[in-house]
Amino acid sequence: MRIWQYGDNINTDMLFPGKYTYTCSVAEEIIPHLLEDLDSNFAKQVQPGDIIFAGHNFGCGSSREQPVLGLKAVGLKVVVAKSFARIFYRAAINQGLLLIECEDAINSYDAGDTVILDEDAGKIVVDGDTFSFPKLPAEILAIQDAGGLLAYTRKKLQGK
Amino acid sequence: MTDMTFAEKILAKYGHQKSVEPNQIVTIKPDHLLTHDNTAAIIQKIQPELQHYGLHNPNLPIIVLDHVIPAASEKTATNHKLVREFVTTHHVKHFYDIGAGICHQIVIEQGHALPGMILLGSDSHTCSYGAIGAFSTGIDRTEAAALLLTGQTWLKVPRSIKMTLTDTLQKAVSAKDVILHIIGDISASGATYCSVEFHGDINQFSVDDRFTIANMGIEMGAKNAVFPVDTRTIQYLKERKIAPKQYTSIEPDPDAKYAFQYEYDLSTIEPVVALPHSVDNVKPVSEIEGLEIQQCLIGTCTNGRLSDLRIAAQILEAKTVHPSTRLLVLPASRQIYLDAMKEGIFDILTQAGGVVLPPGCGPCLGAHQGVLAPGERCLSTANRNFKGRMGCKEAEIYLASPATVACTALYGKITDPRSMVN
């Protein structure tokens, strides 16, 4: 498991360049361009179970959902950041990609530290120090538990 | 309750609650859902459901083809075709094909957004409609797909920020300078998750100016940005044949509680420029004057209105764009295009050497019509200067007002508009 570390204000153009927004919309088209202008190694080397650690305002900018679709498709386990931009946060809920907002965990991390995540307990352990993060509200967990918003919506429509 | 902010009041109303508090989640039915070229990707997610259940409400979506128009490739042409077929099959009531304009301009200009309404859109600059007192915010494509099927979604009640603007602007300083100054001050994440309310000496700002400011709410992380409804809003709507009885505006209570409060003395704000590669990297134009610029862009959903083009024409009348730079002009809608032609604005800008592009998003997102080369600099009136935004990660994007961009086009270098504007 590798931790990819980035700074503040990682915007949607860094995560997925705008010039591809209207020509790439499914996972296999998105993955080769993921983080293309930020870190050209990412798309080649990322493995299922990897984690991103980032600063404030992760995912700011456009409403394009390719960054979330791509990160979910490559099997990223979680993005931990000091804060997230709201459209990105919402898009992650809708795709079932786990995001954790925990400034203290980011501040205490140094490259090479071991990181253990216990999602159910709401805890993340960085180099032996434990940090808690709040559970999502029930309304939002229901979307995540259904496997994302489209699955949730299909269930609701079928139940009518 | 008599102490609610704008966001609390409108979300309580739409959520059928007496009162709400920040962080509470409400289920709402928006008045409209905006989608654009990305409609193609949205409907492809839900083809079987659309066939089986149909569109929840053909009056809900507003669809505008604006992002890559006319189509730049077989792929974008196919997307446009899919959207047109969807519109016909499902009897979508509000559809605007290529050339009508940029989606956000259309929503306000055509009277789809009214004071006191809630609108959602699969575009981050959906926050623009706060210019006329609506609550509007951006969502992702998947959520837009679900809304087409169900007509409802959840929203978290945001905390609110009160921004009080006092006194009057100096000559040659514009609404664009105001919002860039504010973002430079509070940072690109300074309003994250928050509803931003503008208060104070607002009446000096036209609806066009308010549009520019609300449009950039997302660039400080805001959920929405909103202006009070006043005589200028009412007049703007009247000119579009919308009478006050057709809408119910919502104003914050005087005792509303704000998470943060800021006050800006407008008379002290200078013309500014946002430097690469972040919108909050803001400096007074005087500090960066003389920097050579290869492409000047006046237009987009931030500054492509008639009042913006008029300023450019005043500055460039009977003059010529400097040979070391080029000028692109991007009107925000067909109506603005027609008005600008009637006023002779395009004569002036074309004779000066400018290139008038079709009403749409043009080069702003780097897909076509003015992509930059490595090492080039663009001074633009758009809202974003992220690395790679205009199609090349080795290019630099600077953001400024229409006056600053027009003056810069004359000299090929960043130029303070105060020396040239009366």
Structural summary, described in words:
The complex is a heterodimer of chains A (160) and B (422). Chain A is α/β, with parallel strands linked by helices and 160 residues long. Chain A has one domain (3-134): Aconitase, domain 4, CATH 3.20.19. Helix content of chain A is 34%, strand content 16%. Chain A is built from eight helices and seven strands. A four-stranded parallel beta sheet of chain A has the order 1-2-3-4. Chain A has a three-stranded antiparallel beta sheet with strand order 5-6-7. Chain A starts with a strand and ends with a helix. Chain B has 422 residues and is α/β, with parallel strands linked by helices. Chain B has two domains: 7-264, Aconitase, domain 3 (2-Layer Sandwich); 272-419, Aconitase, domain 3 (2-Layer Sandwich), CATH 3.30.499. Chain B is 31% helix and 18% strand. Chain B has helices at 6-14, 39-44, 47-53, 74-89, 103-109, 141-150, 175-186, 207-215, 231-239, 285-288, 300-303, 306-316, 334-342, 345-351, 402-411; strands at residues 25-28, 32-35, 61-64, 94-96, 118-121, 135-138, 153-156, 160-166, 195-200, 224-226, 260-265, 272-274, 282-284, 295-299, 326-330, 355-356, 377-380, 396-399. In chain B, strand 8, helix 7 (175-186) and strand 9 (195-200) form a beta-alpha-beta unit. In chain B, helix 7 (175-186) packs parallel to helix 8 (207-215). The radius of gyration of chain B is 21 Å and the shape is globular.
The largest β sheet of chain A comes out as: 4 strands, parallel
Count of β-strands of chain B? 18
Beta-strand portion of chain B reads 15-25%
- Helix- and strand-based class of chain B? alpha/beta
Number of helices of chain A: 8
Please compute the radius of gyration of chain A using only Cα atoms: 16 Å
Oligomer: heterodimer
Fraction of residues in β-strands of chain A? 15-25%
CATH homologous superfamily heading of the largest domain in chain B: Aconitase, domain 3
Enumerate how many helices of chain B there are, as a single number.
15
